[in-house]
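Run log, item B.
One chain of 294 residues. Sequence copied directly from the ordering sheet:
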Amino acid sequence: MAKKLTVSVVVTVYNEVGNISDLIHSLIHQTLKPAEIIIVDAGSTDSTIATIEQSSNRAIKLIVKKGANRSVGRNLGIATAKHHIIAITDAGCLPQPDWLQKITQPLLSKQADSVAGFYQPVINSLFQQCIAPFIATMPHQFDPHTYLPSSRSIAFTKSAWQKAGKYPQALNYCEDLVFANNLKSRTHMQIVPEAQVLWQLPTNIIAYFHQIKNYAYGDIQAHFRPHLIKIASMYCRYLVFLFLPQLFGVYLFYTIFKHRYWAKTLQATFYLIVIQLTTDLAVITGSLQAIINY
């Protein structure tokens, strides 16, 4: 007798026509089949919705909620889900074939209330190789004791979602870290780094700038203490540079040294310097925008 399907997958999307077909294909071909795949679209203006509607898989359920941010979309999808076990991933991600099986096994066996998976950055260029350590948790940096999962790879029960206070609906950025922090402190979370999705990185410096700026905006908006400390330290660092400009060169040298694994060519060294300065400018821009709009 076939095992009854008891897992719902929830994904939020907005203008993801370039990624949605691959994501759907990956989800419907998991080694553990999801009972339903709930896709909440925030009102895409490209052909994302049409692409989803063209899918013939009966497990897919589309909800269109115009203007919904990620938190609103995820909460809506979870509330709509028919099953108690929820797995979350993102557009722009590609779950590995056994992702759903591995990330839900502790929940199905009732060993945990929530599960943190992992995400591997997809690197197709030297630029992406250089930004990866700035924007992602690299495998050599992974520490299960301090790791907080993003909602690219996470699973939990509906009761754990409620205990964690659900996704904070006022937030569109940093919302997943706030939620994950609540999950980790209020439920029994198990870390399963083998439950992996592949994550698409920005392909150019402008896209990278806007992504970091949005992250910094969300950090301020969410009052997320660990990141607020990092942002404050960066402001202090540049204040010191005003009085001791010679330290700025030391700072750039340290950037190269810290990421020396990736800086094995002159071009990579140049990229690291540009990426560090772009990161700092994006953090300043995003945090100031959040403060002004507070």
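Observations after the first pass:
- The chain has a mean pLDDT of 92.
- The two ends are 57 Å apart (CA to CA).
Flagged for discussion on Thursday.
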